[in-house]
Amino acid sequence: MKIGVIGGGQLGRMLALAGTPLGQHFAFLDPAPDACAQALGEHIRADYSDRDHLRQLADEADVVTFEFESVPADTVAFLSQFVPVFPNAESLRIARDRWFEKSMFQDLGIPTPEFADIQSQDNLEAAVKRIGLPAVIKTRTLGYDGKGQKVLRHPEDVHGAFAELGNVPCILEGFVSFSGEVSLIAVRARNGETRFYPLVHNTHVNGVLSLSVASTNHPLQALAEDYVSRVLDKLDYVGVLAFEFFEVDGGLKANEIAPRVHNSGHWTIEGAECSQFENHLRAIAGLPLGSTAKVGESAMLNFIGEVPPVEQITAIADCHLHHYGKAFKVGRKVGHVTLRCADAQSLAARINDVQQLLTAVGH
Ligand code: AMP
């Protein structure tokens, strides 16, 4: 079976690493000459709206999927005429726009921060009066890793904030004083069967994910599964979906969904019976889902900008390196490690080892 992937970055690369043992082959459509997934499959180097090359991908592939959500809607609609596309067009339409996303959460009875649609500076000022400060203004589309957003703490931060974000449609959210951030990675098969990985605790630095730790018997697991099921069923979703929540007052508030494999699920490669990558491929290919159970205690640490010396990382016990083969660039995710240990105490010690190494090499 051939899997077509829109995007050829590290998520595509890790999909191919998981799918190759299943006998799957891969083609990646990505305009970047150095797309790092090309080491694992065919690289169709073309723009995401290039119909000739989209048609080529559709003709070659048995099923098409995505590694990012800001794919143009026309691209999805065009491909869907010729080949099954998962997740479906409606899931991408909702997930790429924060206003549609939060409105859907509200319709499904899933708690969210207070929010408002912002089309102008006047809208913003009216919304700040209603929601209050601090608040966060975010572009409705194309934001990621803390980009396209600004925290408004004082009245003077509000002046000109709409222009600062580029005079594009935005959403204003009440600032959540959360006690933690968690994500739930779920997978739903073509027949509707759904499985969940354990909730993951996430730590961000400057808006970018830094550390994910898989939980054991998290008291909010059942609640999170209930919320995520509502979304999966509403969207008739197929594949892996990541749902990010704020933990607040012993409950959860929805932040956002990602209709794809997710950075906070990378630990599953070594830390779960069947990884998020393999389960995504099983789901879209119509295969039975694999077990989402943890094996041991796991965490993931991201490498941003550059990967520390390989001989030093591999000297750390229980440490599994994933080097994406990407060139150095400030702020870019270039690799990660999974730590998998027998117990929580050893895991804490190994996390400390990796953090010390990162400090020593100036990260
Ligand atoms: P996002 O791109 O929406 O995931 O936001 C990036 C990070 O900014 C989140 O992981 C949070 O740490 C923080 N953040 C986003 N929205 C809010 C909010 N409404 N209140 C407090 N912190 C937020």
Provide key terms for this protein.
363 residues; binds adenosine monophosphate
3D architecture notes:
This protein has helices at 10-19, 51-60, 73-80, 89-95, 98-107, 121-131, 155-158, 161-164, 221-235, 268-271, 276-284, 310-313, 344-360; strands at 2-6, 25-29, 42-44, 63-66, 115-118, 135-139, 149-152, 170-174, 180-188, 194-196, 200-205, 208-214, 239-248, 251-258, 297-304, 319-323, 333-341. Helix 1 (10-19) crosses helix 11 (276-284). It is globular, with a radius of gyration of 20 Å. It is of the alpha+beta class. The protein binds adenosine monophosphate (AMP). Adenosine monophosphate is lined by residues 113, 136, 143, 146, 173, 175-176, 181, 204, 207, 244, 255-256.
Order of helices and strands: EHEEHEHHHEHEEHHEEEEEHEEHHEHEEH
Number of strands: 17
Mean of residue pLDDT values: 96
* Count of folded domains: 3
Q: What is the CATH superfamily of the largest domain?
A: ATP-grasp fold, B domain
Q: Give the DSSP E fraction (strand runs of 2 or more residues).
A: 25-35%
Point out poorly predicted stretches.
none
Bound molecules: adenosine monophosphate
- Main sheet makeup: 9 strands, antiparallel
Question: What is the correct CATH architecture of the largest domain?
Answer: 2-Layer Sandwich
Assign the CATH topology of the largest domain: D-amino Acid Aminotransferase, Chain A, domain 1
Cα Rg: 20 Å
Percent of residues in helical segments? 25-40%
Tally of helical runs: 13
CATH class of the largest domain, named Alpha Beta
Distance between the termini: 41 Å
Basic shape: globular
Structural class: alpha+beta
